[in-house]
Amino acid sequence: MALLIKPSTNTAQTCCGCSSASAARGSSPLFLLAAAASSSSLSRRPSSVQLGRPRRRGKKKIVVGCVASSKSARSEAPSRRDSSAMAADQRVTAVATIKVTVGGFLNSLRPSRAIDNFKDLIGRSLYLELVSSQLDAKTGQEKPTLRSYAHQVADNDDDVVTYEADFDVPAGFGDVGAVLVTNEHHSTEMFLQDIKLVVPSSASDDSDDDGSAAAASPLLAIRCNSWVEPNSGGDGDAAGKRVFFAKPYLPSQTPAGLRSYRKEDLEEKRGDGRGQRKSGDRIYDYDTYNDLGDPDNNADKARPVLGGSKQFPYPRCCRTGRPMSTKDPKTETRKGDNYVPRDEAFSEEKQLQFSVTTLQSVLQAAVPAVQSTLIDPNLSFPSFFVIDKLFEDGVKLPKAEDLGFLRGVLPRLLQRLRDSPADNVLLFDTPKNVQKDKFGWLRDEEFARETLAGMNPYAIELVREFPLMSKLDPAVYGPAESAITAEILEKQMGHVMTVADAVKQKRLFMLDYHDLYLPYVHKIRAQEHTTMYGSRTVFFLTGDGTLQLLAIELTRPASPPPSAQPQWRRVFTPSTDTTESWLWRMAKSHVRAHDSGHHELVTHWLRTHCAVEPYIIAANRQLSEMHPVYHLLHPHFRYTMRINALARSALINAGGIIELSFSPGKHAMELSSAAYDKLWRFDAESLPADLVRRGMAEVDPTSEHGVKLVIEDYPFANDGLLVWDAIERWVEAYVARFYPDAAAVAGDAELQAFWAEVIEVGHGDKKDAPGWPELDTPASLAHALATIVWVASAHHAAVNFGQYDFAGYFPNRPSIARTRMPVEEPVDSEALAAFVEDPDNALRECFPSQVQATLVMAVLDLLSTHSPDEEYLGGMETAPWSGDDAGVRAAYGEFNARLKEIEGIIDGRNADRRLKNRCGAGIVPYQLMKPFSGPGLTSKGIPNSTSI
């Protein structure tokens, strides 16, 4: 538990604190503290009842308050009494702790820190007010708050500093429903983690040696976990004051004394939609994706605004309020950091792994660092031997003296920087799939298996009709019917059955990137060093439960004038003919590049990062922090807005890593918008609904999970359904605790406002589309909330943390296909001759360049790594704030226990030799749905939120 201190600056990521806190410890004279309390009684607001007094040593403390801390929720609670309502005058002590951060020492040299340290010395740095949940019986007005300055009482070896404030609570004050906190520092913001209220008794054995109450075992506490900005406006100014509520209440059940606080806190978080946001703000507002382009810097970096139009529909992101571009008034300038509300920032531990500096500076600087070692940024790898040596010898970087700050951060973020007298090397770990089977990327069986147990298990779908048909306009894109015929497929199936029988028996499956990509083919081809096709890839379910890869169709639509070339398409199949065999390998590389783009832009970015941000904004604008649903969802929003803001800075922006390294190039985000328009709908985001939508499962109430899988050995779905069920049961139990019937759901004004804003504003471009459920019963509410939790946690984990192990060896999943098929008409005779002469080299030239490959490897390594401060699904460290509720506590304990049980089930499945899609020679076990993980690159672990 800590109250973290750092300076308020324009850069929210720079942490500093009180280096002189230890000097103030124990040196604050009692008469100064008393004088401060006495003088403040004349200057503070007249509603003050009792100000802080000097600490009386030798007093035993017991805790009072309103909400169990996460620690007390995990232990046996002692017998409790009604300690928040005082029957007679009683002394109460509020206990808080602060943690001096890494930057604290240097920050103490600033003049403003000297002022803050003096305030600590005289006990005027933290001002607390206790709020009664009851109105005054005589006046019908809010009762005066009880006010006191907190003074520093302890500073331990872990840089944790404790503050305490005393209150004399009069009889009849009632329940402590909230605490108001004012940060009286001049320039230092505080991260307030919790406030404990303790009541002294006559004994002294439970007190600290210095008389502080910090050592008292907390029975109850108010969990805060929030930054409090400095009150630079002086006494009476609202800046720097925060309210922290003690218990969860539905709006209609809010105690009368807390209603105005509830309302005002929400209004503060909404803001007025005007002005440029500052790093210390806690305002949540919407905007379109209008900052991806940078026309002021380069005309080639102009990009369309995503969201707010029929042409480019998109979810909304957080408004920053930066000035608009002079060259494109629809585009926001990109000066400074992308604002997110202060509480959405990374922790210090997270900053060390992935922050504004690491993403924008380190990764962007890594590109020229690698380029400086090469002759040509488009240079391909000269041999597969050289590719393999990446994991043995690494990538040579410039001399150490030329690396500057990169030398200090590369080891942490881009694997290990290996020093030697001669050079520095960026060394990549060997991905697990290469460790298991170095040549697995060549095998059709592994290609097929990874559609069920790889990094994009959301793409494969059942073939329900044959022939395969496009929904695009044939007048523009050519014949709707696929060139994949029954004869081709039946030959590849060995004539074991007809295609009609295979469709009827649900044994044909497909990766369909035809209609999504085809409209972008010519746009993408207009760029240098990349190409594109629409593609269809067909599989057959064999008798042993594995998939057989049958055929790939690549299509180029007719090109517009002046070239006006007709449509070209061709079907490729496995072959014993050497030329056809090499063409087959190249066709697979194109499909893998299509799948990589779909994975990164649609399954990963759009469906987890992008689509979740409106839920976060709406929840903070419409659900009070004392709302039970806010408590449920809040852990699943951790870091998402910050990671999305960083993505807009360096990943998905014009000239960013996605455009540099993935096939769609500058049209990547347009393609993501098209996918949102055509494919995304809320009611298909839960796992069972997604499986049914793709034909991979059918509704079956008699089955364990309510659906029956079409492919029995579908590792992602098998394990994912276990996790989905655990989430849904936990959410159902939580909702039942607060909503006994439909009337309670329908009558919750905040809940209904939250959901209406998600639909009408956050996802406003699809507000009239089908798929939005009504929140009108406990069941519909629980299902919607479980869907949000699933997407933010397990869905994201399934498509994120396996990226390096499946795509770190890029021939297995190239991010880009740079050259056309050598047989594409009109045939380039020179390219065809070169292919025939050296097909190995032709394939490598199709792969990403050396710069692209090493950049993507570094990024995937980073994105696949768990942070040291990660919080995992069902982990007891994030037990609900309402943990003093026995029913909620029991349900969450069952959730935690079930997830641990699921881990054992997954381990058993991975050892079952009958399950050929997850167990066997050279096969990477499927662990992405194992809930818990340590830090690092593990290919397992489900964080609570989309946090990286």
Automatic annotation (TrEMBL):
All copies of domain PLAT, residue ranges: 94-242
Compositionally skewed regions (Basic and acidic residues) per UniProt: 261-285, 325-338
Protein's UniProt keywords contain Oxidoreductase: yes
SMART domains: LH2 (SM00308)
Coiled-coil portions: none
UniProt key word Metal-binding: yes
GO terms for MF: dioxygenase activity; metal ion binding
A Pfam entry, by short name: Lipoxygenase
Region (Disordered): 255-338
Any GO BP annotation: fatty acid biosynthetic process
UniProt keyword annotations, A-Z: Dioxygenase, Fatty acid biosynthesis, Fatty acid metabolism, Iron, Lipid biosynthesis, Lipid metabolism, Metal-binding, Oxidoreductase, Oxylipin biosynthesis
UniProt domain Lipoxygenase: residue ranges: 248-948
Cofactors demanded by this protein: Fe cation
CDD domains in UniProt: PLAT_LH2
Family: Belongs to the lipoxygenase family.
PANTHER family: LIPOXYGENASE
Protein name in UniProt: Lipoxygenase
